[in-house]
Amino acid sequence: MKNLQDYNISYSLDENINLMKEIFKDDNTLKIKKLQNQFNPNMVCCIFFINGMVDENIISEYIIKPIITNRISSNLNQMDTFQDQIIMSCSSEKTKDISKLVDAVLMGHTALFLECENNCLIIKSQGWQTRNIEEPTVEKSLRGPREGFNECLMVNLSMIRRKIKSNKLKFNFMTIGDITNTDICIAYIEGLAEEKILENLYSQLNAIKIDGILDVKYIQEYIDKEPFSIFETTGSTEKPDVVASRLLEGRIALLVDGSPVVMTLPHIFIELFQSADNYSLNYYFASINRILRIFGFLSTISIPPIYLALVTQHQEFIPTPLMMSIYASRISTPLPTILELIGLLIVFEELREAGARMPSFIGQALSIVGALVLGTAAVDARFVSAPIIIVVGMSGIAGLITPNLNSASNVIKIVLIFLSSILGLYGYIIGMTFLLIHLLKLDSFGIPYMSNLTTFNMQSLKDTAVRSPAWYMRLRPRYMTNNHICSNGGKNHE
After folding, report:
1. How many angstroms from the chain centroid is the CA of residue 484?
2. pLDDT band at 1 (very low <50, low <70, confident <90, very high)
3. What is the layout of strands, in order, in the sheet containing 110-114?
4. Confidence of residue 494 (pLDDT cuts 50, 70, 90)
5. DSSP-H helix ranges across 116-194
């Protein structure tokens, strides 16, 4: 098959029809309709569109009907006449570029060819079905906005635009994917986003060579500076209000057509413990919730290795009655403690994954009944001891508080368990030390990953483990943008 650059639009309408048939050979979704004006039989044209990608009412009412019913006289600028006087569309464009024409048709636009014209008119007529705007299932909000992104790029951009009604909000489009030709959009607020970060992002996006982009995760793995780290250095969300708030802090958002997830950057570690409704709840309760999430993350990675270290190598730290109870429960259990821990952690993750993948009404019952039945049966059969069930259950429940860190916490947990089985509490301390060093070494587009926690000034700590009142957070983060002043009224309490 020829390359698109080898084709040229002809002055002959029949040749152009054959051209489109050849380009879209064996594609039965391409629809071709030849039209003739009722007042001027010599005025003949043909339209092309992809079935299922267009709004047929737009084509019927605003393209076909005007062409057939309007009085069209022959003149030297027929295509200009069609564009300016006949076609009832707010967006149309003339082109001679075959590549641009094919891309437009594949995106849901309609192409119009005229006899004796060696160009075509691209008319906007997109109208495919999209998912309704719903609340994201992962990012539930107790209070505040409940709308979430869907798979339509323009709908997602409109939701952001409704939040930030400013001419400083910029949307720049790019196309990535040699085969899929996926539209992506870089959103930022002029004057707040750092130019160096924008330039770095554009250079990395232009360097991506891939056949197809189907989700924002594809791009994330290409531009991630730390691809082998278990922590993601770019943020992700499905909520327009979260994207709007991050744009107002000087961050950049990247949207991909076909994906309801929006990537934001730069991204810092403390954002993993923040939620959208933190800013809709009283700041006392929001601060308590954040502290619970941080404690939950530390608990989920620490409870199993500390228990293993105390039971196997540091029994002197356990009160004698408790140690006797643990010892009594372990009588007749065939497996060592470390295998019990790892085995039950695997079973817990299997139950969690099964509950998430199954239909909601079955998944909840599967998770609860499975945990109760399997746990009770395992203890009664002396496969595992009762304290192990409690330890794994506490660790698993604590991990559910921070779903964004679930994958990372599982890896950390396993590593700490192995270190604790060899070196006891010293292994746990060594593992946590290396974890802290790793976090301090990470950065996201030049911004330290632990920025809020390593910059010891009042402004940086106002929105970290606790959330200060809105009137107290007057300045934007200093590590994110040079434009620190935030026009929110009130006095500067810094």
Report:
1. 27
2. low
3. 30-36, 44-50, 110-114, 120-123, 92-95
4. very low
5. 153-163
